[in-house]
Amino acid sequence: MLALKLLASHLTREEGADTKRPSIDARVLSRVTNLFIVKKPIELKLDDRRELIIKLETVEKVYDIFISDDIDLILRKSAAEQLAVIMQDIKMHAMVKKLCLTDKIIEYLNECVSQDGEVVECLVQPSLTLLRKVLCADPVLRVSLSQQPSLLTLLFRVSLIFHEDCTVVTEVGALFCLLLFDEVSRMDMWSDNPSNKPSSPSVFSLPVSVSRRYHLPVHVLGHHAVSPYSIVLPLSADCLALKPVSDMLRIAWNLSWYHGSDNLLKQMNSETKIQEFLDTLKLSTEDTLTLKLTHTASGLKDCLHSIVQAAAHREVRAALTRMSFYLLNDRLSFKGGTGPCGITLKSLSWHTTLNRFLQVLPACTEDEKLLIDIIHFLNKLLKEQRKNVSVELLNWLLELLLRHSPNPLLELLVLTESQAREEADDIRTAVRQQLQKELVALFNTLLLSSVALTDRKCLELFYVFQTQLALKLLQCLRVTDAPHFYGLPSLERTLRGMAHLTAFPGWSSHSPFTKPLEICVKYLSGLLEVITSFYVEHGGNAMSFMGKGVTKSTVLCLLHLSHEMMAQAQSSEWMSLWFLPLRSHSEEHATTQQGLAWLIPLWVDRDPEVRFTSLGLGSALTTLETGCVALANSCQNISGGLWGTVVNILLDQSECSMVRREAAFIFQNLLVIPMPSVIIKDYTWQGPCVHDEDSGLSLIGKPALQALLYHCHFYEHLNQMVKHCYLGRYMFDPNCSALNGTSEGNDLNGLDDSFKFWRAPSRMSSQDRDPSSLSTLETMVAASSASAEFQPLVLCTAPLPEASHDPFVAQGQHETASPRLPHDSSLSAPLPRQCVFVTPPLLSAMCSLLDSLLATTPGDTANAFRQARLIELLCSVADATLIETSVQELQALLPASPPVEHTQAQVSFLLEYLSSLSRLLQSCLVVDPDLVVQDELLKPLITNVIRVLTICTKDISDIELISAFYQTWTHLFNLLAALLRKAGPASFPSITMGLARYWATVVDMFCRCVGLSGTCPTLCTASLQFLSLLLTEEAKTHLQDKDKTSLCHSPTMASLLDKTQESQKSLEQLNEVILQCYEGKSSRDVLKRVAVNALMSLLAVSRRAQKHALKAHLIDSCVEQMKHIHAQLNLESLRPGRAALKKKEDGFIKELSIAMQLLRNCLYQNEECKESALEAHLVPVLHALWPWLLMDDSLMQTALQLLCVYTANFPNGCSSLCWSSYGQYPVQAAHRGAPGSSLMLCILKMASQVPLENTAVQQMVFMFLSNLALSHDCKGVIQKSNFLQNFLSLTLPKGGNKHLSNLTILWLKLLLNISFGEDGQQMILRLDGCLDLLTEMSKFKHKSSPYLPLLIFHNICFNPANKPKILANEKVISVLAACLESENQNAQRIGAAALWALIHNYQKAKTTLKNPSVKRRVDEAYSTAKKTFLNSEETPLNAYYLKCLENLVQQLNSS
Fold this sequence. Notes:
- By secondary structure, this protein is an all-alpha fold.
- The strands form 5 sheets. The protein has a two-stranded parallel ribbon with strand order 1-3. The chain has a two-stranded parallel sheet with strand order 2-4. A two-stranded antiparallel ribbon has the order 5-6.
- A hairpin with an 8-residue loop joins strand 5 and strand 6 (592-593).
- It starts with a helix and ends with a helix.
């Protein structure tokens, strides 16, 4: 399996892999395992004749034929086969070497593996034979070619293409033997006495060991059964006398004698001991002890026995230490799996052994030390089993932690009042602190181990434990913060435990006595007290004595707490609980302000993790409108206000990406609230405010936002950010200096003052950072003098005075809180000396921000995108190759691969970026499709999207990463669907080409996505919607291009679905999963409607889908569903309650419409399916439903569409409409009135009564009747019903209107179809005045069907029985004769053909048509036609017209 993964990696990474065959996937590689194990190996012997049988000139001629591109491939193949025979003689090899035969063969093989390589496949087999014979006789060429990996992969691709051709596979296998075993085949490398003289070409041979080891596809000579370099050392008798050797032999002897260590230990522990061998082989006491200790099961049992029998604390602690060593041995020896210790502990009852120590409170210091060791061991055990933790272990621990008093593990977290008051010595204090430290560590590990819990009982216990632990940690926080004791490590430890706990959603909601929001409020009070006491009131970390771990954990807890309060609170009133009074240190401005001002100093803390987390807290709070308003009010005295501060952080190039990402989220949240374009009094949210001191101009809302973005050069900065995006893994050397240059403030006080870093960008080197925060430093590298980047942006034009100690008070009361625009605000921004790398998560946040900007100011943002070419740049970052490579590394898990966590993180970041980008592109398509619809952008974008969609994730076990893939695939499907909706004609060809390129994998991907309807319905819905839109767009394109002759041979979805053989099984599976998705869901399920649309589209395009639906009895089930709906409708109509009835009827009507639409598409142009519908009694069912169809026009239209499709080119179906429903289908007529004896009569009745305004139903009725008019049985019903009499009542246009009505055109189309048969023609002629009416109608025009009356006359003229009636009507003859003078060629052809049909074999017609008027027209038309067609290109229609006129002239001129 590992070899296959390595091969796949080589093939996918080689240059031009995308343009080569075959596409590498699991299906292709599955056939590789036994590919080169052949039944008939090749003989490598060549002939060495004394005389040349074939002349060299002949060889050259054959070679020229072989390499010529102008000669037919069959001849070139024959030449290659002749050359292969010629090359059996070694003396001929010198000739072809001069002609560069090898290079030409490799060229042919490269051409074969290209996308269009099927043409030269016939040359592959003889070319491989030629290459084998040349290599067999030329060791120098073998050495040269064996050093070319590209040739090896080329040969391997050839074998994959011809995997079914054993001859080609055997030839490739022989070439692999010659190239891969070339070094060991050379005798001079193996000979004892290598000769210095050059020898003649030697026979290819291999060492015997190679022939025995491998199943070679060639017969080859062997040499050197034993390597001449092997050294056999004689065994020295002195070695056996050494003690280490004798000890090893003794233990090995006993292990072998007793068949393993288990039996040996049993024998050692048994009372009866039998001496079976010499005393020298008997185990010593040291040997026995070593065996017992190194055998995990025995050692653990001995430890547990020691604990049970222990008489003092020391013995128990020693046993626990030994058990910890066994755990350590597992960790060192069995990476990634459970070792012997973990397995053995699961089978031992160690819980009961340790249980007695965990149920009582410690009475002395020794008890506390013992408890520390036990808790430490449990913590280690949980850590080792974190990936596969035992449910039994968790249940035991949780039950132990939740037991009623005494509960030492939870009670020992908080010191009692007596313990806090007593004056303990230093040792006892240290022990208690260590105990609390171990307890918190255990609880943190327990919380982490419970992330993937699925056991219901264990989960319930865990939920209760969360809330109980939360209350205990809250008590710890209060005790820690007591005035008489300031323990910074204890505070940090407690806060770290809180951070672990609050990360779980719902941690506060499982207390029977305290409401969740009350717990959250208590937490908020305590955490804010920590912030205000040790950070804000002391001027930030410049004067605070608090460690950065406390700040980090506190802010992280507050972030978690904000999400918990959002989930637990019923309204947004809780936001006011986060407000704090903040007193100024300046005596001049001794004011108190409420709000979130305490949060702002944290945004500029010296630790990037604190900045990141505090900005994340701001992002969480601003998801509510009250949070946005509160935070904006808190920043009123800061130059630039909230908007300026956030944009400043976002565009600060010296800031790390994760901090800027959270600033982008805050900016995005601020844009969500609608903002005005002008100043509105008493409006809660005014948006940004910009004031220009020079002009006195003030802007607010959207204009201010545009001015702010313009002033900040926002889009120019973003352009540079995209260009410097780093897509690799984030594994940096922590000892490497991040910055190249001197810091602005070198004094220690300057470095510690976080507010200095707020006012000016940080220039602190990595040596000045705390080592524990190096993993989160800025991703910045030193750049050369030629590199360019934007300088950090500072919005405020006047710097803050150094003397000011209060950052929240502005410089002078006259200053406003809005950013000041300078007089000269140029778009060209200066470039700095440093190059800052931007990460994909930051770009993801920027895409989301741009999406919000596009929604806020669509026109301005779209223009900015276009000017900065942002969409092109953002799309260029999306590269499927990186994701494919990383996924392959995750699947291969090679020893040299980077850590799995790093690779998973990289894939997750790239997938997140793709999701954000796809959402942005969807918004662009809505606002301005031209931003996306560009050839240079669209094609690579679609290719990347499809490649990501077809990535195989089967071997990825990480649940979160799989979820990320599903989410990204959902967004990518939505993007493709949006492209088809908004830019279908432009995007459809590229999408189809991309899908065709990876078609087999695409079908498997669709099957997988649709199959996830239960676990991931959004992905299933998105994939089905895309498939439905894709097939619909193809149908539209087909209708638009039906009359055009397209020279493009691009694949269509219909051809991919029906004509590809390699993915036939997958296509059947796709049809099956879509059917299951449709049939397995309730009618109210949204997913069912999506599945219906996809199924309809698939049935309309694919004949295979129709065939599968027929096999799956879809037609029968739809007809049965229609029967059931009919019964339900009748039943519901008998019940009282009109409102409820109407609601239920609507539901049934929708189901009925869906069933008929599915049947319509399933029957489309498929006679086999129509036969099945006939057997299922489709027509009688529709006949029974007729009264309900009459009540709903849309339903009637659907039914008529179904009947049109059903009767098209299906005489049996047409005849079935003439049958009486009684006896055929046992359903009685509805109570609303009997519909009639047959459905045909119902149709005729409706066609006679349809009101003129209902054009859609009217058109469908006549289209349906036009189908029926081609059936003999239906024409009989039409004649008996006197339906055609309605035609005579049609009115002709009056006044200046020269166009026939739509109803008249429908009647004419019906009569045209009736006139195709002799019986139909008689029906028309029997209508009194019909010919005269048709003659009058021929004088009017209709743009879609201008010559319908003429065509009816034309058809009638061909029947000999009709000719007397036609000739008797002078108007018809004059109309037909007038056609010859028409300007339209179609009318000329119709008239000429009709007149020729009249005169053919009918003498009386000659007399009538010899009328001078008619004859003159015929002669003139014939003369004009000969002149016209003589100089023009002859077409079949022109030739036919000329023939008609020739025959007319001959007949009229004959006597």
